[in-house]
Amino acid sequence: AAALLGVLRAPFRVQWEVALQGGGTASLAADLAEGATAWPPRKVLLSVSPHDVGGGETNEQVWLSMPTIMSAEQLECVISAGRNSVIADVPSERQACGLVANAVSSASPPKNRRLEAPTDFGANLVEADAHRSVLQPRCLQQWHSDVCGHHALFNVSCLLRGCAADLFDEECFWRVTLGNIAALVRCGEGTGRWERSRVTCGIADEAHLRELVSEDLALRGHVSIVSAREVWTRQLRTKKSPIRAALDAVRLRKKLAHGFILGATAHWYAAVVYAASDDGTPPRILICDSKNAPLAGRLSSEAEAARAAEERVEASRPLCFEALRRLPDWAHRPEALVHEAVEEGIPEWWKGIHKSNMFWHYQPLSVKRALKQSEYLDVFTYLQDIAVLVGIPPVEKQSDL
User: Fold this and answer.
1) Pairing state between β 267-274 and 284-288
2) I need a surface site. Which of 97, 110, 292, 365 has the fewest CB within 10 A?
3) In terms of Cα–Cα distance, which of 220, 246, 221, 218 is closest to 232?
4) How far is C-alpha 25 from the chain's CA centre?
5) CA–CA gap between residue 206 and residue 227 (Å, rounded)
6) What is the pLDDT of residues 162-183, one digit of tens each?
7) By C-alpha distance, which of 180, 179, 228, 223 is closest to 204?
């Protein structure tokens, strides 16, 4: 009896595996433990392998934790990209460094070709600020909540390689991202720097992004990674800092362009600053947000940043309401209780300890508001400082945040 109950209460994994047309396999795995209250769980682990069903784990396969609210079309795209990543023939440089960043078409522009800021985005321009020469092109919409760092890396790579059209190539994005995650897995296991689960969840933190950039010959020395506004400010105070040196080089036209992966509170952004052109066109700044929220023309002051943040938080109310209604525990609760949960959040505990509401899955709107205001103030500061340091006339700051 004790043995049976022990097995019943022990955590276990359920896994489904299917053969893919043309070769390879894909599987979804879910971990279950005592205390689980919903099925399916919020996340499952996707694995794509070049080998047949039952072939076991190999160094060639790719992994990614996936949200169970994904659509069949989204899962199909990721599986297809994963299969192409592990089965397609790869160049020797990828075999050496483990990356697939060069999967972006026209991988690296010829050295004798002038890299200029793309300007003709047409309907794919989210927003622009002519006064600060800031353009915000539309990019691939992020639907996986944890991969904003990979989106930022992909976007800055596309722009620096002169391949703005690839910003919308979802299969290419997932092929690059899954290959990069596999490379990070091998790096972590080979060096002991991080556990596999730290990267297969989809999150890319500063250390992971630095590793990927340093191993990409087209990006090394051309992309700066800034984890927080405070780090940015400290670097700008030092004239010989790498960030200051990069911006000075663009201002003096010693560099045609320089990319940035910018951490803004809980989100990563991509930005590329281009030097002034031969015809007198001033420097330009391109910024990409994987959520495609209009920012370029709405963050011209601290007050504007606060207003934009408030608009975003208020717009999230109906989305949060709908998300709660899809949960089995909330499907039949009175509307008033659901609205209250949207406003106040849903408390969580860990081993008897009440978790900070910042770490709740469903946060109070007050927390979301504070985080979004901080995020947009970060972006405003980045854009303002870049514009000033490359010679674009500054916009007067307001201090009524």
Assistant:
1) antiparallel
2) 110
3) 246
4) 26
5) 6
6) 888 899 999 999 999 999 999 9
7) 180
